[in-house]
Amino acid sequence: MIDWFTVAAQIFNFLVLVALLKYFLYDRIISAMDERERKIKDRLEDADRKKQEAGREAEEYRQQKEKLEEQQKELFEKAKQEAEEKRKELVAEARNEVREKRRGWEKGLQKEKNEFLRQLGRMATEEVYAAARRTLKDLADADLEEKSVDAFLHVLEKSKKEVREELTRFASGKDRPLVVRSSFDITGTLAQKITRKIHQLFSKDIDVDYKTEPELLLGIEIKGPSRKIAWHADDYLERLQQESQKVFEEIIQEESGRQKSKKEEEDSK
Amino acid sequence: MELKYISPDQVVYWQWGPVSLNATIVFTWGVMALVVIGALLITRNLSSEVRMSRWQNLLEILVDGMRSQIRQISQQVPERYLPFVGSLFLYIFVCNLLTIVPFYTPPTASLSTTAALAICVFVAVPIYGIRDRGVGGYFKQYIRPTVFMLPFNIMGELSRTLALAVRLFGNIMSGMKIAAILLAIAPLLFPVLMHALGLLTGVIQAYIFAVLAMVYIASATQVQKKKQGQQQDNGEGKEESSNG
Q1: Inter-chain touch A32–B47, beta carbons under 8 Å
Q2: Is B243 among the domain residues?
Q3: Is residue A200 part of a domain?
Q4: What pLDDT does A207 receive?
Q5: Is B244 a domain residue?
Q6: Which domain holds residue A156?
């Protein structure tokens, strides 16, 4: 059954086949497969590397983004703060302006008020003065005149010596009598009374002349070149006027003081 | 019954003394030409990219399958066994597969061919064994576990080679013969079934032949490896104990 020549030929054939397949098939296919494997591995490694790189870059970008966001936030905060400050400033400015304006207005008002009060005072005193004047005028009679003379004599007695001496010097001689001015006519006993008193207090050589001057209201006076001795109801009235003026001034000051304290209170608020 | 159904060796096309050009040799050349030219054509422009031709894919699956089989059986790097064992499988596989082609006689149906292949395996086993373990190392396995086992080992070696040859020959030859006989008795349908069965048998036989060849080779190389491993283990153990 076995043909040994065929066996030998087949062995040879098979060995040739093995050699041919090794060269043409296995080596080539395996090298191609290895090559592919290597390439895929390379590609995977490359992909891995790129992925890592991408991850790193992404991380970097994320950090940058975070930083930017933070910066943005900071800037926003700063802007907000600045705006708030600006707002406060503007509000304060506006408030100041309003305050200034109000102060000015209040000052004006106060001034007007003071002026009004002052005027009122003046008018009141004038009225009082006028009323008193009128009253005194109306009341002027003999009795009052006598009383006035008594008062003048009293003043004369109380007058200072050097004033009396000056007046004496001034009236020595007949050309220059000592003029007694009065608001009413001094005659008779009243005139004698005064003349006697002058002679007693000044000098017996002095001539005494009497002059009536209605604008003196109710009063008697002896006038020298620089000094005079006088009694006036006007004096009292003037004092009254001054006093009432003073009272009004006080009222005004009080009022302005109250205004000031009120303002300070508001400012502190 | 035609002559080729008895044995393709008997179909002689040309003869000169003992040198005869019979059907076995001619068809073997045909199969060889087919396989080699096919491989040549496919591997002419191989692609190492991810995209490749279907034929390349087919070959890669084939080669990779054979490699993994060899790796599984031998537990060694498959590349050194692949040309021999892979060619055995490919050759027998193509020989058997072509039985469906009319006027074709598989060379594996000739005892001369299967004997030639078995002899190849018979020779390859000691070659691989000696290359791995040296002459002494290889031949020592014949006197294991005792010297008395030497004749049995030799007989075993011879008988498994004989079995290798006869198994393949018997299967393919019987398939051929059954197909021929059935063709004579029941020309319709039945021969087709038997041919299909023959194809299955042929593929299985190709696989069996290659796997057995690999097992024989592996057994000749592996024993030594295992022994070396054991020795290493022992050596390490001794070192450890001496250290202790």
Answers
A1: yes
A2: no
A3: yes
A4: 79
A5: no
A6: 140-242
| Span B50-67, average pLDDT | 90
Q: Kindly state the tokens that stand for B144.
A: 């294991």
Cβ distance of B35 and A17 shorter than 8 Å: yes
At residue B244 the predicted structure's pLDDT band, cuts being 50, 70 and 90, is very low
A153: in domain:
yes
A197 in the same domain as A259? no
pLDDT digits (tens, 9 = 90+) for A218-240: 778 887 777 778 887 767 777 77
Indicate the number of domains in chain A.
Answer: 2
Q: Determine the 3-state secondary structure of A219 from DSSP.
A: strand
CB of B116 less than 8 A from some CB of A: yes
Give the best residue of B46, B77, B217 to mutate against chain A (max A CB count within 10 A). B46
Q: Which residues of A touch B79 (CB under 8 A)?
A: 30
Domain around B83 = 3-234
Is residue A65 in some structural domain?
A: no
Please list every residue in chain B whose beta carbon sits closer than 8 Å to the beta carbon of residue A44. none
Give 3-state DSSP helix, strand, coil % of chain A, rounded to 5: 80, 5, 10
Specify the pLDDT at position B230.
57
Is the same domain home to A110 and A238?
A: no
A10 in Cβ contact with B25 (< 8 Å): yes
ipTM topping 0.90: no
Find the chain A residues whose C-beta atoms sit closer than 8 A to any C-beta of B: 1-11, 13-18, 20-22, 24-26, 28-30, 32-33, 35-36, 39-40
What is the distance between the alpha carbons of residues B68 and B75, in angstroms, rounded to a whole number?
A: 10
Closest approach of A74 to chain B, Cα-based (Å): 53
Give yes or no: residues A263 and A231 share one domain.
Answer: no
pLDDT, tens digit, 9 for 90 and up, residues A42-73 = 999 999 999 999 999 999 999 999 999 999 99
Please give the pLDDT value at position A86: 93
- Chain A within 8 Å of B69 (Cβ-Cβ)? no
- The answer to the question of residue B242 being in a domain is no
CA atoms of B70 and A113, how far apart (whole Å): 125
Q: Is A167 a domain residue?
A: yes
d(CA A39, CA B72): 26
In a domain, B195, yes or no: yes
* CA nearest to B33, candidates A30, A31, A24: A24
Give yes or no for B165 touching A (CB within 8 A). Answer: no
Number of structural domains (chain B) is 1
Which of the residue ranges A100-109, B24-33, B150-159 would you say has the lowest mean pLDDT? Answer: A100-109
CA–CA distance, A196 with A186 (Å, rounded to integer):
14
Task: Judge whether residue A115 has pLDDT over 60.
Answer: yes
Facing residue for A5 by CB, picked from B19, B90, B91? B19
The confidence score (pLDDT) of residue A81 equals: 94
Q: Which of A218, A137, A211 is nearest to A179 (CA)?
A: A211
Stretch A159-176: mean pLDDT: 76
Q: What is the mean pLDDT of residues B84-105?
A: 92
**Cα nearest neighbour of A14 on chain B:** B117
